[in-house]
Amino acid sequence: MSLESAGPGAEQSGRSGRLSREGGGPLHAQIRDILHRQIVDLALPPGSSLPTEEELQRQFGVSRSVVRQSLAGLSDLGLIRRQRGRGSVVAATPVLRRHVQQAGGLDEQAAAHGQRLRTHVVAIEPSPPPQAGTEALNTANTWKIERVRYLDDLPVAFMRTWVPRDFFPHFTAELLEDTSLLGLMRDHGYHPAGGPRQVQAVSSDADLARVLHISAREPVLLLQGVTRDALGHGLEWFNVWHSPNTVFDVDAQVTSQPGRVSQEHIRRLRNLTQQLESELADLERGPQ
């Protein structure tokens, strides 16, 4: 799956709230993206009612069939509920929370919040990683694994991971489906210990937007890193793109800054050092 940049047409219409009738894509998709953006930005909070089909027709100047296609798209994404007698109501969007300083254990982190993650393997194939991955794993003989993580049927992360084939020659899509990758590593004698990570905001391209059910060029959080075992063997090198409804929790600590040391304090420490050296010398000489 390529992650190349997409054109700005749908992005501009989604941000401005206006339809682009020339080069902006299907009208129903533009309306869906505009309403999607309003929901994500909390202009339409959970439980609130969307405008009626007639109101949306007048607002956007489109037919009822176009409006119904837009609402069906939002319903398929799990963003609205269509209720008889109430029309369309904004659904509560689940939020994935993860600790950026914790390696792995995403399933356990979700379970701690009463949530369950599901994993779907998109592809697995022999493929060398980029140069940074080759250096981190100390090999180019790797599997490239692409997976999508779902939370309450909502896609929340797209994962592209490289693992050494020499360590895990038996990996298949069936084996990895809906299974913890690090758990499989432990089952086969390799115990992940952790490694450096970095998080940055990037713009989603058309392919990534389609996978995560978001707008093209919408900002997402990219987590990159390597996981090693206690002996320093590289077990995985990965890129994980998180949907906008992901919250990274960080346990920040205040670093105490040493104050200015007074000359009196230095003098006392020197006196104490001299006293200790004198007593040690007496002990070394032994009883006279």
Model regions low in confidence, pLDDT < 50 over at least 5 residues: 1-15
Helicity range: 25-40%
Any idea what the CATH superfamily of the largest domain is called?
Answer: Chorismate lyase-like
Mean pLDDT: 82
CATH architecture grouping of the largest domain: 3-Layer(aba) Sandwich
Give the amount of beta strand, in percent.
Answer: 25-35%
Extended strand count: 11
End-to-end Cα distance: 84 Å
- Over the alpha carbons, how many angstroms does the gyration radius reach? 28 Å
Task: Output the helix-strand order.
Answer: HHHHEEEHEHEEHHEEHEEEH
CATH topology of the largest domain: Chorismate lyase
Summed up, the helix count is 10
Biggest sheet, open or closed, and with what strands and sense? Answer: 7 strands, antiparallel
Describe the global form.
elongated
Q: What is the domain total for the residues? A: 2
Tell me, what is the CATH class of the largest domain? Alpha Beta
Structural class: alpha+beta
Organism: Pseudarthrobacter chlorophenolicus (strain ATCC 700700 / DSM 12829 / CIP 107037 / JCM 12360 / KCTC 9906 / NCIMB 13794 / A6)
Keywords: DNA-binding, Transcription, Transcription regulation
Protein name: Transcriptional regulator, GntR family
Pfam families: GntR, UTRA
